[in-house]
Structures are given as structure tokens and as C-alpha cells.
Hints:
globular, disordered N terminus, binds pyridoxal-5'-phosphate, 15 helices, 4-stranded mixed β-sheet, 7-stranded mixed β-sheet, Aspartate Aminotransferase, domain 2
Amino acid sequence: MLSKVLGRRIVSITKGGEVFIERELKYGTHNYHPLPVVLEKGQGVHVWDVAGKKYFDFLAAYSAVNQGHCHPKITQALVEQSQKLALTSRAFHNNLLGDTEELLCKTFGYDKVLMMNAGTEAVEAAVKISRRWGYEVKGIPPNQAKTVFCSSNFWGRSIAACASSDDPERYKNFGPFGGMNFQIIPYDDLDALEPALSSKNTAAFIFEPIQGEAGVVVPQAGYLKKVRELCSKYNVLMVADEIQTGIGRTGKMLACDWEGVRPDIITLGKSLSGGMMPISAVLGDNEVMDVLIPGSHGSTFGGNPLACKVTQAALEVVKEENLIENAEKVGEFFRKEMKKQVGQFISEVRGRGLMNAFVIRSGQGAWDLCVKMAKNGLLAKPTHENIIRFTPPLIITKEQMKEALEIIKKSVIEVQNE
Ligand SMILES: Cc1ncc(COP(=O)(O)O)c(C=O)c1O
């Protein structure tokens, strides 16, 4: 019956995985198209499926597991704190929130932080904060604030995220979106940026310093600097969504550090918890963040004691294990090796640190290659028909990377020969 519903036979790479996949398809909504592997265990850069097959994890839960799967220090923080106090809500103070907020502010160099849960919530909050700043500080007339986004942006699938997207997969039949006053301009296009920012009701420019979901799109050198310059010139908040690029992923703490640029607001998420639970944050200075007053924003779970302890441990691991330096070094090695593969099949290798992708020349085949790599012991995911993103945990060693590269190269040869 299921096969009929789906119109296809279920084929699992994991031995005996069909039963798990069928159950998901029967009882869960079909809003994802996962690779047909069924995982049950993770440690460091590896995951194992229910049949005991071991894989390199080169997705790392869309960069949420920078510290590696089940990092002992983060796991310990989670277990210990969950036995003591997990959730108070923000109706009361707790003994960990202030410390964690201080750590976040000092680590990233801002006055204040708002802790939330999913990354989408953080960007959503950034939209709200920047609009309110627009009215109360910049002096934009009521309900006229404009927010500028980029083409191919991705920050989730809330109604505001859908409204700011130019991808029909995200917004089709979820409207109406009227009245949001969102403008979408081409990414990495300075000619389009200036007119959008110079309009007097623009409150914020929200963008990814490297677009992840779009296929690891790295803007031209100098783009971030120019964004900063134009935002300052027109008194528009520069909001960098560092949810995927942040916390060492690109070989710097923040991707904006590559051009020595300090945004007015940053959003963080994903590896802020080392993949243990959804934890996100919005950081900015007092002039901006103080627009939030009691009742204007909140979340039952945001800033809970468990999240605080996990955040502290996750950030300590990044520092103690030199993950930022490792990301830069091993990422460089990955690109150098993969660039040797550019030719008939692969047209481009791009990225920064351990946020990389390659493009398949023919314009398709990414799915087939991902299936092949999975069979050979490495998990990665297409971002488009012809682009595969490679974002392993930042703890990966050069030796492990060499092993992984062999799997990738072998898989490329095998799909070409099929
Ligand atoms: C740049 C960026 N922002 C926001 C999000 C949304 O984060 P979440 O899925 O935790 O809501 C993502 C998710 O992939 C992302 O890549």
C-alpha cells in the first residue's frame, strides 16, 4: 500500500532499513527527502546505521555537529544538568542564564544576547528587533519598515522565512505574504544593494556571509566590507545570519571575520549546542537590543538551564580543541585535493574552512553520487540537482579526511562508469 502511495518501491542502503523508512513514510509528513539510510549511533565524525555499517558524516546535521557526534564533554553537561534543573521558563531567573549570556557576549563581542531555540526563531527575532529599532531609533514611520534579503537566501520555513524566499518550494501556496515589506535583491550584487539600502524606510539587510543552502555560495572578496560600509552610510542594520557559517565552520569564529567586519546583529544556532538540542541566539549592542522590553518577545524554552549548560560546554570544546584552526587547515587540504578532480565530471570546488561544495558539470547527478558515497561509507547531501555540500564535523583529522577523500574519489569514478 505504501509503495502505491509513494508511487515507488522503497530501497534502503541500510540492510533491513525498509521497515523504518516505511514507518516514517506512513506516520510522518513527507516534507523531507532523506537518503535511504537509517542511523542509530554517532561518535565523533562517524555515524552507524541499524545494520552496523559505519559512515563518515559529511553533513554533520547541516553544520550543527561541529564538535562531533555525542561529544563527551557536551554529553556530560547535558546529562548532569538534566538531572538537576532543565526548564524554569523565563518567568523566573535561573543560576546559569546570566553566566551564559556573559560568555556569549564576550565570545562574540556584543553588549547583549537573546537566547532562543531553533535558528529560524533567531532570524525571526532579528527581523522583529531590527524593525522595532527602525521605528524607535531610526525614526521610520509606523508600519513602513522595509527589510532587505538576498535571492536564494535560506533561514527556515516560518511564514516570515517563506515570505522572504524567492524559492517556490518554500513559499508556494503558503501565502498570502502581503504587507511584510520584504525586498529580495540578488546576492553578492553591490549595484543592487545600494538602492535597496538607501531607501529611507529600510531597517535592515539580512544575509548569509556564505550562502549554505544555496550551494555554498561564497561572495566576491570585499563584499562583506562593502555591505558594512553601505549599511553604516544609510543607517541600516547589517544582520549577518551566521547560523550555518558561525562557530568555526569556515575557519574563523564567524564568516564575517574573514573581512574583519562587525555586523550590527548576528544570529547563531546549530553548533551552539554541538547538536545536542536546538539552541540559537541573537547578539547585538544595547542601542539595538534594548528595543525588546517585557512582553515583546519570548519563548518557553529559550535560555533554559539545560541549554545554558550545553552552550557553555559546546563553546569550551570549540576553544579547547582548536576547532577553528583545524577547520581552516583541513578544509584547505580538502579543497586542494578536490580541485585536482575538476574536469569532465566536476566543474567547480568552492568553500571556506570546512564548508565546501562541488558542482557537477552536467547539471544533475548529485543524488546518485550521494547514494553511491553512502554505499561506500560517506554521507553527504545534495543542495541542488548538481551541487553537493561537504560539511563534516570540525574535529576531523587530516588522516580521516584522506580516508574520506578516497571514498569520494572512488564514488565519482563509479558513478561516471555507470
Ligand atoms: C543560514 C541559516 N539560517 C537559519 C537556519 C534555520 O535554522 P533551524 O533549522 O535551526 O531553524 C538555517 C538552517 O539550515 C540556516 O542554514
